[in-house]
Amino acid sequence: MPNDTATGFLILGLGIVAVLGLVFAVTLRGGPRPYSTAVPPKGVHLPPPSLLPVLMSVGAALLAAGLVFRPDVAWDLPILGAISGVIHPIIGPLGLLVMLGGIWAWVRAAGREWRDQERGAHDAAGH
Amino acid sequence: MTAEAPTTRPLMEPARREAGMPTPLVGMLLFIASEVMFFGGLFAAYFNARASFVGTWGPPEPAEPLEIFPIALPITLILISSSFTMQFAVWAIRRGDQRSMRLWTGVTLLLGVIFLIGQLYDYSVLGFGISDGVFGTVFYTLTGFHGAHVFGGAIGLTILFARGVQGQFSARNHVAVEAISMYWHFVDVVWIALFTTLYFLR
Questions:
Q1: In the list A15, A122, B108, B137, which could disulfide-bond B86, CB 3.0-4.6 Å?
Q2: What does the radius of gyration of chain A's CA atoms come to, in whole angstroms?
């Protein structure tokens, strides 16, 4: 297996650790908070329509396409060359960014919706 | 007829007092049920492809056949161990022992990350890629999706750990720990099935 491929997987491993570190930092950012014991409103609650799941699916499809359509010959570039042993250096990272962006936005939307219901922004039926 | 006593329910009463099972756990169970179907589809694809390539099934030439040493078996044992440490964290917080909960959650997270890095290292030395034949595609799809699930669980564990550091869990309020624990056990069971299928059913 070429060294470029090993370097590509090393970058992936470092990316995993970096993402986990980021998640830890973001979770700690708000400081100590009491455990929320708020309950959902009565009735059936449906989340509002959103295009974000579609966006995430497109990102995941691009990521998978990047894995399948990687270049036969590694690119002669510093970082993109190492990645190109594992994944298409353009399509793959683009898909990853779109997917992570979609996840991030969807989690934020869910958090906003929960805070709205804690403040009682829903109607009597819980919608 | 006696007068009915006035109900004095606390304003912010936890959901489990009314429903029996906390809503997040029900949600996690439903999610896991959908994941079982998802992985069921992947396993079906694997066995279908395997049945179509009888006698020639395996890593494409010139790659070596899959071996459980030196990587696959150790990372399997690491992942199985992480299920135990996760359960220790659950038992700790049920007792209200926040310190032990943080410790065991941290250990579980570490074992999960070691598993992921071990899997990536395994990928780098296997000698075939996702586009190298049907076996390569099915192998990387199965193990890759499982790895993505482990990564998702690691994110959940990181959030648990951070919230544990902030002292947000107690013997009474720890439904997130229970939910992530269920997910982590599920991911572990899937890997055992995957490991057995890929490395022992030749």
A1: B108
A2: 20
Q: Which two tokens stand for residue A123?
A: 């109607």
List C-alpha distances in Å: B119 to B80, B99, B159, B192: 14, 30, 23, 14
Q: Could you report the predicted ipTM of this complex, rounded to two decimals?
A: 0.78
**DSSP-assigned states of every residue in B107-168:** HHHHHHHHHHHHHHHHHHHHS--TTSHHHHHHHHHHHHHHHHHHHHHHHHHHHHHHHHHTT-
Residue A97 structural domain: 3-33+49-118
Distance from CA of A98 to the nearest CA of B (A): 16
Q: Does some domain include residue B3?
A: no
- Model pLDDT for residues B139-180, shown as the tens digit of each residue: 999 999 999 999 999 999 999 999 999 888 999 889 999 999
Domain ranges, residue B186: 68-199
Task: Please answer yes or no on whether B165 and A37 come within 8 Å at the CB atom.
Answer: no
Euclidean distance between CA atoms A92 and B182, whole angstroms = 31
For residue B69, what is the DSSP state?
A: I
Query: Which of B22, B27, B43 is closest to B143 using CA atoms?
Result: B43
**B151: nearest CA partner in chain A:** A16
- Residue A59 domain-assigned (yes or no): yes
Listed in sequence order, the residues at least 6 apart from A109 whose beta carbon sits closer than 8 Å to its beta carbon are A50, A52
Task: Tell me the chain A residues in contact with residue B173 when contact means C-beta distances shorter than 8 Å.
Answer: 35, 37
